[in-house]
């Protein structure tokens, strides 16, 4: 099952746009731009004309585009596997629903990690040619947290694919709900702005924050790495991010066990 999923994912031309995006960025930078030498192992600047842009800002824009690419491309194979014809055919083989579920997440994780490596190799070429630097903590942060960030969206998309039986509905709802997770990181400020400072409202928001995969939490952790390296990472926030992925993942697993094909 993993082999089939990997074949479908690597064959998915929409996902090819991810490394293609980084390739275009690197080629453009080699031709028109420059890199400011890093003062540490986790941050540097991009030089375009007379201006310098923090790499954190550039990566934020690239990340947003990659997330959009993955939201469009990643659910395609799972959506097809959920159709009655394909699902009943797959489960007629010696494949359990448990294997069906976990092999999908294993395959997606492998593909995300593979494309992240390709992207970082391209970035390493750019940094080596333009500035002769290799910011180790920058690359480690991308390898660890880039796949995890996209996986938070995919976990939500899988749940809504199972609930709606719709590729479009699953992708849109997964994107909207997971994107909303960043609100919970500033819930106190938002509640204060709305005039809802009661203990009940605060507790309710805290509970919700643990129910939705926290893409916003991962982005905040990556920002901490850009600001101060791995030593600046909030371990409690990282634990919260991992815990927030469990409810949707477990609910998806339960619903898949009950789903009729």
What does this structure look like?
With 261 residues, the protein is mainly α. It has one domain (2-258). The chain has helices at 2-11, 13-32, 55-73, 75-81, 84-91, 97-131, 136-164, 167-179, 187-194, 199-209, 215-228, 235-258, and strands at 34-36, 45-48, 51-54. The longest helix has 35 residues, at 97-131. The radius of gyration is 20 Å and the shape is globular. The two termini are 17 Å apart. This is ABC-2 family transporter protein. Keywords: Membrane, Transmembrane, Transmembrane helix.
Question: What order do the helices and strands come in, and which of them pair?
Answer:
Elements: H1 2-11, H2 13-32, E1 34-36, E2 45-48, E3 51-54, H3 55-73, H4 75-81, H5 84-91, H6 97-131, H7 136-164, H8 167-179, H9 187-194, H10 199-209, H11 215-228, H12 235-258
Antiparallel strand pairs: 1-2, 2-3
Helix pairs in contact: 1-6, 2-3, 2-6, 3-7, 6-7, 7-8, 7-11, 7-12, 11-12
Strand order of the largest sheet: 1-2-3
Report helical residue fraction: over 70%
Shape: globular
Count of runs of 4 or more consecutive helical residues:
12
What class, by secondary structure content?
mainly alpha
DSSP E strands, number? 3
In short:
It comes from Fodinibius salinus. The chain is mainly alpha-helical and about 260 residues long.
Question: What attributes characterize this protein structure?
Answer:
261 residues, mainly alpha, three-stranded antiparallel beta sheet, 12 helices, 76% helix, globular
């Amino acid at each position: 099952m993993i082999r089939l999923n990997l074949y479908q994912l690597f064959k998915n031309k929409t996902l090819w746009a991810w490394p293609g995006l980084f390739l275009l960025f690197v080629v453009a930078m080699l031709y028109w731009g420059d890199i400011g030498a890093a003062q540490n192992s986790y941050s540097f600047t991009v030089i375009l004309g007379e201006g310098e842009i923090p790499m954190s800002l550039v990566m934020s824009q690239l990340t947003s585009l990659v997330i959009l690419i993955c939201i469009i491309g990643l659910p395609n194979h799972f959506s097809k596997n959920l159709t009655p014809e394909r699902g009943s055919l797959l489960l007629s083989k010696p494949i359990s629903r448990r294997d069906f579920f976990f092999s999908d997440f294993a395959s997606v994780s492998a593909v995300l990690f593979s494309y992240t490596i390709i992207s970082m190799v391209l970035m390493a070429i750019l940094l080596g040619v333009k500035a002769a630097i290799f910011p180790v903590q920058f690359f480690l942060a991308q390898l660890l947290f880039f796949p995890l960030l996209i996986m938070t969206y995919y976990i939500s998309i899988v749940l809504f694919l199972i609930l709606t039986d719709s590729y479009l509905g699953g992708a849109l709802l997964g994107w909207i709900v997971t994107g909303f997770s960043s609100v919970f990181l500033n819930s106190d400020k938002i509640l204060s702005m709305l005039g809802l400072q009661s203990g009940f409202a605060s507790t309710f928001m805290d509970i919700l924050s643990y129910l939705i995969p926290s893409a916003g939490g991962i982005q905040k952790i990556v920002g901490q790495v850009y600001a101060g390296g791995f030593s600046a990472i909030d371990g409690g926030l990282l634990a919260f991010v991992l815990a927030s992925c469990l409810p949707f993942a477990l609910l998806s697993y339960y619903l898949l066990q009950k789903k009729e094909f």
